[in-house]
Design goal:
- The protein is built from twelve helices and four strands, in the order βαβαααααααααααββ.
- It has 745 residues and is mostly helical.
- Among the domains are: 182 residues, no CATH class; 125 residues, Ncd80 complex, Ncd80 subunit (Actin-binding Protein, T-fimbrin, domain 1, Orthogonal Bundle), CATH 1.10.418; 85 residues; 89 residues, no CATH class.
- The strands form two sheets. A two-stranded antiparallel sheet has the order 1-2. A two-stranded antiparallel sheet has the order 3-4.
Length: 745
């Protein structure tokens, strides 16, 4: 076949095509479908409709290639790949240059979503489509058997006949032919109450969002009337197709629903019946209709989302993002389909057409795409070289394994130290436990002593209670105790101040003596080092304590001067002064000791009073703790009662709410029933009135006819000269629906 004449209808060796076949072609006998042939010259152009095929015979063999793959030719187009059927002879190649196309008959089965992998997609690889060798045969009935000669029959075109296909067989590569034919699809979700409830809410929300003009509640979507269903369905169809017109050629709505759903692509339209559409509120029909309404809602939302989503459009004017592979594929598909659309139109119009006319945009797009790919490759190569350099740099460095091993050893030592530290902590914990045990024992003994002191206190209180003490004495004792407490507090505060002052004086005196001793030591050391004689005490500065040795004396006693003259009296006076000073200091110490004894005695009394007060405070604290425990227990009981009351209130509120909802539902149901009853009543009243009017009209007309006939009879009797006839017709005034007629002849 000439590569310029290869069409979508001739890509299948068996003549399969994705182009729909007119319904009139399906009425022809399937047994006579074969290759379309004509008598005539080589310049004839064939019709696009399927031709009547000759009958098949077993002796005729086919020379058409049986391969299932096709590829676009690249004799004059770089974007096609050449592939010639190996089974054609030379004459057959010349005859195949005549263009003819066969349309595929559309399958009447229901449509289902199919995977995109079943169809050829634009890509960078080979533009080839794999097809199955076995074409799907579609008979006119589910029980019809295909003719025996059709499955293995072939035709061989003659020298002066042209055809682009073999025996006519319906291709199974279309969207609808992938599904099993003559099957009624049923939705299994219509038996699930939760699914039905979710559909009701979804349809209800959609109608509310789109401004449904009629009154609508959830109850309406549970048991709708025929009028409600028709209004809802019409409103949804208007939302989907604003140009749809109802009632064309006097069709009823139930007659238009199923064809309309078929045209919209609804898969389960076979489950709908005309009787079900006339009574949609039945329990067996409404779930299926509700599923259909939910499908329409989903279809409208998905279509609007697709129209508003820029990533789902095929816009050749917008450059796709290099990071989005899906956008790249969509753009490539868009450019390729534009090229096919333009060239296919020219191909169908004439034999000689310029194929180079529409190639520059496609070549430019793929060249840009190639440049982008090359630039990306260069960028990746540069990045690869950088990564290799980084790898070499890291490899040249010393391995981190040795450092990790050293760190591991260090961590092991730290772990060992930590374990030792934990062992020490455990030992300390044991010691602390022992110490706590001893403290606990001491505390228990203290508690025992406290209980004994409380018992003694109780006994003392009983003894005090037995004494006859008047109120005035008791008040005096209390005032005296308060005064003593205040005096004790003041004395204790003064004692604390004095103690602090004494401590401060002691510190200062100690510091001063230290400084003096240090200074004396320094100067003494310096005098010793210099060989100086130490000076005399301050009151005896006029005395000279130096001793001069007279080496020229005859007697040893005379070698030293006499100390009894100056030095001894001075020493005696110094001793006397020191004794006086010591006596004065002793008197001061005695005074201070006396004061300290008085303060100690006062402090002891205050401590005894303080102990009594502490005992009273402990008793009051214990009583306070008991009161707190009682108060906490009472608060706990009150909280429990409050929680119980709140729970009962919540349950009562939930019960009231449920009752209110139930009552509202019942009121809505009663309102619906009331409206239906009122509508039926008005309809019956109208029918009765119309029937009565028709009956009354009939009676009046019958009465007029009787009067006319009677008058004619009277005239006839008078004209013939017969006996006189007196006709008295009396109509009583009280008769409303009957007439009394009295005739005398």
């Amino acid at each position: 076949m000439d590569p310029r004449r290869r069409t979508l209808a001739s890509v299948d060796p068996h003549g399969g095509s994705n182009i729909p076949l007119p319904s009139s072609a399906l009425k022809r006998p399937q047994a006579h479908l074969a290759s379309s042939v004509r008598e005539g010259g080589g310049g004839n152009r064939f019709s696009l409709a399927p031709q009547r095929l000759p009958s098949h015979s077993g002796a005729r063999q086919s020379s058409v290639a049986t391969g299932s793959n096709f590829q676009f030719s690249q004799h004059s187009d770089a974007y096609f790949q050449s592939s010639q059927p190996t089974g054609f002879s030379n004459s057959q190649h010349q005859d195949a240059a005549r263009r003819s196309s066969v349309y595929q008959a559309p399958q009447t089965v229901n449509r289902q979503p199919t995977s995109s992998s079943n169809f050829p997609a634009a890509s960078r690889g080979s533009m080839s489509v794999n097809r199955n060798e076995h074409a799907h045969y579609r008979s006119s009935s589910a029980n019809d058997v295909p003719p025996a000669g059709l499955l293995n029959s072939h035709s061989t075109p003659s020298a002066n006949r042209a055809s682009s296909v073999g025996p006519f067989q319906v291709s199974h590569h279309g969207t609808s032919s992938l599904l099993p034919p003559f099957q009624t699809y049923k939705d299994p979700r219509t038996r699930d109450r939760k699914t039905i409830a979710s559909w009701q809410h979804e349809v209800y929300e959609f109608l509310q969002e789109r401004g449904y003009p009629e009154p609508l509640t959830i109850k309406t979507l549970q048991t709708p009337t025929t009028k409600d269903f028709q209004n809802i369905f019409k409103f949804m169809i208007q939302c989907s197709d604003h140009g749809h017109v109802w009632g064309i050629y006097g069709k009823k709505p139930e007659d238009e629903v199923i064809p309309l759903l078929k045209s919209m692509g609804y898969i389960a339209y076979d489950a709908l019946t005309k009787s079900g559409l006339q009574a949609p509120g039945s329990m067996h029909t409404w779930p299926t209709l509700l599923a259909m309404l939910q499908w329409i809602v989903t279809t409208i939302k998905l279509r609007e989302e697709a129209m508003s989503n820029d990533k789902m459009r095929l816009d050749t004017q917008v450059e796709p993002s290099p990071d989005d592979s899906r956008a790249e594929d969509l753009a490539a598909t868009s450019h390729w389909l534009q090229y096919l659309e333009a060239t296919y139109k020219l191909f169908l119009q004439s034999d000689d057409f310029d194929r180079e006319l529409h190639k520059p945009p496609l070549e430019e797009y793929f060249q840009k795409r190639k440049d982008r790919v090359l630039s990306e490759i260069e960028r990746l190569e540069g990045r690869n070289s950088q990564l290799e350099q980084e790898f070499n740099r890291l490899a040249s460095k010393p391995s981190a394994l040795e450092g990790a091993k050293k760190e591991h050893k260090k961590l092991a030592k730290d772990a060992q130290s930590f374990l030792e530290y934990l062992a020490k902590l455990r030992e300390a914990n044991k010691k602390s436990e022992k110490y706590n045990q001893s403290i606990k024992q001491d505390l228990e003994s203290a508690e025992v002593k406290l209980r004994e002191s409380q018992k003694k206190k109780v006994e003392l209180a009983a003894l005090v209670a037995k004494q006859n003490i008047s109120d005035a004495e008791l008040q005096h004792i209390s005032s005296t105790r308060a005064q003593l407490e205040r005096s004790s507090a003041a004395a204790q505060a003064k004692h604390s101040q004095l103690k602090e002052a004494m401590l401060d004086l002691e510190v200062r005196s100690t510091q001063a003596s230290d400084r003096v001793e240090k200074t004396l030591t320094i100067y003494k050391n310096k005098a010793v080092k210099l060989g100086l004689i130490p000076r005399a005490p301050e009151p005896f500065e006029h005395l000279d304590f130096s001793q001069t040795v007279n080496s020229g004396a005859a007697d040893v006693v005379d070698m030293l001067p006499d100390t009894l003259i100056d030095i001894k009296p001075a020493l005696i006076q110094l001793k006397k002064n020191a004794i006086d000073h010591r006596l004065g200091l002793t008197d001061q110490v005695l005074l201070v000791e006396e004061k300290l004894a008085n303060l100690t005695e006062t402090l002891q009394e205050k401590r005894e009073n303080l102990q009594i007060l502490e005992t009273s405070v402990q008793q009051l604290a214990k009583q306070l703790e008991d009161d707190k425990e009682k108060f906490a227990a009472e608060i706990g009981r009150m909280n429990e009662q409050i929680d119980t009351i709140l729970k009962r209130v919540t349950e009562t509120e939930s019960t009231i709410e449920n009752s209110r909802v139930t009552v509202d539902h019942e009121i809505q149901a009663l309102r619906v029933r009331f409206d239906e009853t009122q509508e039926r009543l008005s309809k019956l009243t109208k029918d009765n009135v119309d029937e009565m009017n028709s009956i009354l009209g009939f009676i009046v007309s019958y009465k007029e006819r009787i009067a006319e006939k009677t008058l004619q009879l009277k005239h006839l009797s008078e004209s013939t000269g017969g006996p006189s006839i007196n006709l008295d017709v009396n109509y009583p005034a009280g008769s409303s629906g009957t007439n009394n007629t009295n005739m005398r002849i």
